C-alpha cells in the first residue's frame, strides 16, 4: 500500500522519516492523529493524501514490529 512513500534522507529534516515529495515528518502525521485529528484534517493541514497517512502508519508499525522490547526487572516484593 504505502511502500516507498516514506523516505529517510540525511539532507532533509536531518534524516528523520518524511512523506516522499514533502517535508512532512512521519511523527507530525502520527502526532496529529494521536491528538484527535481526522484523516481529512491531517490531509488538509499538511497537503497529504490518504495513501500518505497510511504509509506513515505502516512505517510506524514496521519500526515497532522490528523493535526488541525487554521487560524491566520487577523488584522482589516482600509479603507483608
Can you summarize this structure?
This protein has a single domain, classed as Orthogonal Bundle (Arc Repressor Mutant, subunit A). Helices cover 42% and strands 5% of the residues. With 80 residues, the protein is mainly alpha-helical.
Your description of this structure?
It is a single chain. With 80 residues, the protein is mainly α. It has one domain: Arc Repressor Mutant, subunit A (Orthogonal Bundle). It is built from three helices and two strands; from the N terminus they run ββααα. Strands 1-2 form a two-stranded antiparallel ribbon. Helix 1 crosses helix 3 (50-66). The longest helix is centred in the C-terminal third of the chain and has 17 residues, at 50-66. It is elongated and about 60 Å long.
Q: Keywords, please?
A:
single chain; 80 residues; mainly alpha; Arc Repressor Mutant, subunit A; two-stranded antiparallel ribbon
Q: Describe the biggest sheet?
A: 2 strands, antiparallel
Mean pLDDT: 91
The CATH architecture term is: Orthogonal Bundle
How many discrete structural domains?
A: 1
Strand order of the largest sheet: 1-2
Tally of alpha and pi helices: 3
> Percent helix among the residues?
40-55%
Evaluate the radius of gyration.
17 Å
Structural class: mainly alpha
Tally of DSSP β-strands: 2
- Described by the principal axes of the CA atoms, the overall outline is elongated
In the CATH hierarchy, the third-tier topology is known as: Arc Repressor Mutant, subunit A
